[in-house]
Amino acid sequence: MTKSKKSIYSALAANILIAITKFIAGSISNSSAMIAEGVHSVVDTINELLLLYGIRLSKKPADALRPFGYGKELYFWSFIVALLIFGLGGGISIYQGYQHIRHPEPLGDPTWSYVVLIISIVFEGSSLFIAFKEFNKQHKEETMWSAIHRSKDPTSFTILFEDGAAVIGLLVVLAAVYFGHRYQLPYLDGIATVTVGLLLVAVSLILARESRSLLMGEGIAPDTQARITALIEKDPHVKKVLHILSTYQSPEEIVLMIVVAFHENLDTSDINEAIERIRDMIKKEYALVRYILVQPEFYEQAPGKIKIEQ
Fold first, then answer.
1. Which residue of 47, 174, 254, 264 has the lowest C-beta tally within 10 Å?
2. Secondary structure E strands in 88-235
3. Per CATH, which fold does 2-216 belong to?
4. pLDDT band at 303 (very low <50, low <70, confident <90, very high)
């Protein structure tokens, strides 16, 4: 989570500075695409503040109202960020671009637009590099899409997508400003604005999908389940692991429920001792597992049939 904060702070600093200069340059050059980019930077700034707020809330200790803690606050605010990108970023840009295509305005002096766009590309590119570097440290052996899909920390891939969309959007606007002035085609400014809006909508849909999945409750990976099963079944008192249920409360907290069949000749004291050993073994191997619930059951297995008794 600390690494994710580093990416957020770098993106936040870049967007605050860039948003102001984009609005100034857009007013001077009479460019709707530059104004749209300014809106984009403002939305990104708000999003980063919301992510930091979500991180702070997710650290609240468990209480009577939330016995498993407040970790899912982060997933909720990540989902809100995706909605803001869709509505404020994508929606406003598409509407503004559409209006500018219908009623193109005379182009102003593009000098400041070029200056701001180039500076913005440098700042956003630096922020993207930091976000990618931090994300790559945590997912070295996975493809980018697989890492994003498997990641349980929405702040890491949200900043990555935001910065990536920002760099692409800036390049689109830079091309529109250049060709629009070179060939006197003012409607290119509106086309660039709509393109930026559609890009933000696409990013928001991807982020909403991933954030929703985390908010609804994702469990540990099948290979991790298999390793935990093998670990538990090494205990001499365990006959078989019947079920493993899990959910991420936050990127750093997992709730694990295990249904275990113990040998029939054990008494209550033996089972309690085995449960304590199981908890200790799992926590030693998997630091993220915060809560472990072990449900003992007995079962009789006949040919082609399993009977479970609670």
1. 264
2. none
3. Alpha-lytic protease prodomain-like (1.20.1510)
4. very low
